[in-house]
Amino acid sequence: MFDNLSNRLDSVFKKLKGHGKLTEKNIEDGLKEVRMALLEADVHYKVVKKFIGDIKERSLGQEVTKSLTPGQQVIKIVNDELTKLMGDSHEELKLSGTLPIPVMLVGLQGSGKTTTAGKLAVLLRKRGRKPYLVPADVYRPAAIDQLKKLGVQLDVPVFPSDAKADPVQICQKALVAGQKEGCDTLLIDTAGRLHVDEELMSELCRIRDKVKPSDILLVADAMTGQDAVNIAKSFNDTLDIGGVILTKMDGDARGGAALSIKSVTGKPIKFIGVGEKLNELEPFHPDRMASSILGMGDVLTFIEKAQSVVDEEKAAELEKKLRKSQFTLEDFRDQMVQIRKMGSLTDLINMIPGFSKNKQLKNLEVDEHELVRIEAIINSMTPLERRQHTIINGSRRKRIARGSGTSVQDVNRLLKNYTQVMKMIKKISKGGMRGFGRGMLP
Ligand code: GDP
């Protein structure tokens, strides 16, 4: 998903991060590349235009936060705007009204509608609901059989639709039958065509007007890019859909449909299909998707957490020490205390952009109890030992272990971790990641 866009944006941001201060020209150049990257990802040109305009305005008019470099601030803004573009937060299926609650699935042939009906049944059942599958595509008898087979496979009841019956009648009868079966949610798999045509639309309108579905979901194939956006627009104009399920996201490296649909139709993407298997349907979270496009873990949460705990002056002082390699065990301990204030260390490491993929750091996972032990060990050292860890020989290690109620192995491990972290920090602060982890790491 979004591989090309991720790579392109990554290289734009690498360039931006190289600058200590960003000028209007730097931002302009960066945004030009972001624009190209979005167009190449097949995002609707009008959407791109507005997106770039919004980012530019925010980037130039922003208030400078000391804990982030200008490059990172631009990334944060792009992240925010990408999230907004895709609809801000996850929108759930609308399931309200008298039972059984009908939900209509609409879309063109081959978009993955029938498969998605099965996937939704699985998802709803996991949430404790009792789904009832209703095949209402009478033009393609194979579609009815396909859903019946899916029902058997999933052990979900399927309405025995008659291919000669009128789809509206099928749905009305299915409402009664579903209730008798003790089901609470009707998933109606409507007919598909190769193209949007009036006959199909009028049939869907008839079903909608009689059945009064609680939600109407358009199933669209992400791999068709802007076609999916246009299809969503036509279906929405006629049917006033409740949202979109974008299928085949697993095969879509560009992502144009996912990025344009909300903006063009005003309707949210509620779920995405990420594979052919029946458990491969996921709720769509714009914020998580934006972060994953930017390849940065949960940047936003990280930045927010960091901002709320880290004293910026202290962080600057710490950075100076790091640069001069004067980061002592005492500083290490203070950082540990800060990290504890921020929550779980593992979560934190995973949130730091680029760090979650770093094998060395993964091996460094320290559990929460360990943090307490580390603090005790460092507290048992003399001030000189804390400043010059190299003097801590065997007998000093024994003394420290005794004093802190730990073992010599614990002390050894801490010293090893400390030197490893020192190495990592040096590498990272040279490599342009400056600031993201600033003041955060032990
Ligand atoms: P319908 O004509 O709209 O009912 O489409 P189908 O449900 O028959 O699906 C068409 C094809 O798309 C089938 O081969 C499905 O396995 C495949 N498909 C559906 N959803 C996904 C998905 O999320 N990922 C992938 N890779 N394939 C999918």
From TrEMBL:
The record's subunit annotation is:
Part of the signal recognition particle protein translocation system, which is composed of SRP and FtsY.
Which GO CC annotations does the UniProt entry carry? Answer: signal recognition particle
Question: Where does it reside?
Answer: Cytoplasm
Which HAMAP family did the record assign? Answer: SRP54
Query: Pfam families this protein is in?
Result: SRP54, SRP54_N, SRP_SPB
Chain positions recorded as GTP binding sites: 107-114, 189-193, 247-250
Name the source's superkingdom. Answer: Bacteria
**Domain note:** Composed of three domains: the N-terminal N domain, which is responsible for interactions with the ribosome, the central G domain, which binds GTP, and the C-terminal M domain, which binds the RNA and the signal sequence of the RNC.
SUPFAM superfamilies per UniProt: P-loop containing nucleoside triphosphate hydrolases, Signal peptide-binding domain
Similarity section: Belongs to the GTP-binding SRP family. SRP54 subfamily.
Where does the SRP54-type proteins GTP-binding domain lie? 268-281
Q: Which GO terms describe its biological process?
A: SRP-dependent cotranslational protein targeting to membrane
Q: What class of enzyme is it?
A: hydrolase
PROSITE patterns, alphabetized: SRP54 (PS00300)
What protein does this entry describe? Answer: Signal recognition particle protein
Q: Which UniProt keywords are given for this protein, alphabetically ordered?
A: Cytoplasm, GTP-binding, Hydrolase, Nucleotide-binding, Ribonucleoprotein, RNA-binding, Signal recognition particle
What EC identifiers does the entry list?
A: 3.6.5.4
Q: What does this protein do?
A: Involved in targeting and insertion of nascent membrane proteins into the cytoplasmic membrane. Binds to the hydrophobic signal sequence of the ribosome-nascent chain (RNC) as it emerges from the ribosomes. The SRP-RNC complex is then targeted to the cytoplasmic membrane where it interacts with the SRP receptor FtsY.
This protein's encoding gene: ffh
Does Hydrolase count among this protein's keywords? yes
GO molecular function annotations of the record: 7S RNA binding; GTP binding; GTPase activity
Q: Which SMART domains match?
A: AAA, SRP54, SRP54_N
Species per Swiss-Prot/TrEMBL record: Desulfonema magnum
Q: Which reaction does it catalyse?
A: GTP + H2O = GDP + phosphate + H(+)
